[in-house]
Design brief:
- The protein is mainly alpha-helical.
- It folds into 2 domains: 58 residues, Homeodomain-like (Arc Repressor Mutant, subunit A); 132 residues, Tetracycline Repressor, domain 2.
- The protein has 11 helices and no strands.
- Helix 1 crosses helix 7, helix 6 crosses helix 11 and helix 9 packs across helix 10.
Length: 228
């Protein structure tokens, strides 16, 4: 994988969801190679990780590694595709859209439920989340694909809910719905990333912190007496 815009394009629609769990490992050695690669990629990034290092961590040889994975890129995609399928592919997007389109009474309940939903998915994939984020930051084609996919599928539905709340008088009507939607999505995505990386649990304290974040997003930081 490269950090340029050349090369093969990520097309989520062409990724077969039957590979949700990845290809079934042929041997324990293959499992060891995949786990070693996941750990090294999350720690160093794929660009700074060599196949020799992966083989050493897996307690095997490069020759054996290449028997299962002819190139480092194939190994990267073998790890990435199941993560992508679990986080941003149609099955997960469909669940998110259904959640968004429920009959929400107020913005706080809506944002908290959406936050918890995405956070739960992120926590399920654990350390792999770091690897996925690293790849998105390095691979412009992957960035574009993720952005385009969410803009086409999730953004319009989120925007509809914002407009609904505005019409009901629960969000300031003078706010531009596009700016409002982008701001809240960016804030929520950022919080989910930070939370899943640094607080990998769902304790009562964690839930309380989520409530505080939602309060800030909805109510702002100024006092009711001074909103200037």
């Amino acid at each position: 994988m490269t950090n340029s815009r050349r090369g093969s394009k990520w097309d989520f629609k062409k990724i077969d969801e039957s590979h949700l769990e990845g290809e079934k490992p042929l041997s324990q050695k293959e499992i060891d190679i995949i786990k070693a690669a996941e750990k090294l990629f999350s720690e160093k990034g794929h660009a700074k990780t060599t196949t020799a290092e992966i083989a050493k961590a897996a307690k095997t040889t490069e020759r054996t590694l290449f028997k299962y994975f002819p190139s480092k890129e194939k190994l990267i995609r073998h790890i990435l595709i199941p993560i992508i399928l679990k986080t941003i592919m149609p099955s997960q997007v469909e669940k998110t859209i259904k959640l968004i389109n429920m009959n929400w009474e107020n913005p706080k309940n809506f944002l908290k439920s959406l936050y918890l939903h995405r956070l739960e998915i992120s926590l399920q994939i654990g350390e792999k989340m770091k690897f996925l984020l690293g790849e998105i930051l390095q691979d412009h084609k992957l960035q574009d694909a993720v952005s385009e996919y969410w803009k086409e599928n999730v953004y319009p539905e989120f925007r509809k809910v914002m407009i609904k709340f505005q019409k009901e008088g629960k969000i300031k009507e003078e706010l531009d719905p596009d700016i409002l939607t982008r701001t809240l999505v960016v804030a929520l995505v950022g919080q989910v990333i930070l939370f899943s990386l640094f607080r990998p649990d769902m304790s009562q304290e964690a839930i309380k912190q989520i409530d505080n974040v939602i309060d800030i997003l909805v109510d702002g930081i100024s006092t009711t007496e001074d909103k200037s």
